[in-house]
Hints:
globular, 365 residues, TIM Barrel, 5-stranded antiparallel sheet
Amino acid sequence: MKPSAVVGRDYRSISLTSPSTSDAPSLQHSFCQSIRIPTRNSSFNTISITSAVTKRGIVFCAAERDSPAKCLRLILNSPGVHPGPACFDALSAKLVERAGFNYCFTSGFSISAARLGLPDTGFISYGEMVDQGQQITQAVTIPVIGDGDNGYGNAMNVKRTVKGYIRAGFAGIILEDQVSPKACGHTRGRKVVPREEAVMRIKAAVDAREESGSDIVIVARTDSRQAVSLDESLWRSVAFADAGADVLFIDALASREEMKAFCEISPLVPKMANMLEGGGKTPILNPLELEDIGYKLVAYPISLIGVSIQAMQDALIAIKGGRVPPPGSMPSFDEMKEILGFSTYYEEEKRYATSGSQLSRERGG
């Protein structure tokens, strides 16, 4: 593979491309690294780079130079389908990044569970979601798409929500057309607002983005497939695209045929799939199948919270039985310290060490 480096004017990104698609993996993956890039005065800066390896090459996003939204748009403009797990706190987001994903989602279901211990039935508030989101975006360098629920009110509330998510550091926001209180996707009792109000929410989100001078990615979701009909969900999706949505998402499509019908509308607007693990209404397809249908983004909303619940239950059973969790069921203490950044902290701490602090350490302080 003989890559050629091209500096993207809009995104200040670097693309390494190969003349042969066989030189790159069939599925994209991502990783983070540091490289030295010459500046205008011929000096070099070392910056953090997030890269996405796709079927056609490697796309790099300079995480410290570009906004999270620009990094996400770079992903949307790259070939292939892009899986994204959903996190629920700073630690789970760090694990997603360490695993090599080039972006992730937040899950309202998972945040409601982890933060409140309550079902995703409208209990969690805008303020709680923004606060949790800020902790998440500050913990990682990859772009994060935030679950904005139904915007927490009317069109004016939607504007406030979008501006709050921008300030919190989100790269994208998912906005849905449910009534308040909303219901979790793939559960009973979902109702949607009238067509005009649903479209106005997306227009308000676009206005909020423009007023903020931001380029946050607006993902327009409709729950009308289960609340009304497939035809209604397709109509709303087209209207959302016309209103300025960047990505379209119909939740709880019930068959592969419905998924294909969705991906055929508004062909220039990327589509998002939701692979609800463990028993949702939408068929679980692998990334290649989803790419063939026409999807660009794929969310895995409850994998991390689900396995966390199971692991904690198993550990509690062991402790209650007078045992500690068995080897292999949890990382070692050293591994946990590495994940959490103790080594990095100790190295950086040396830069600010004084003779007094060194003496305190030597004495075991």
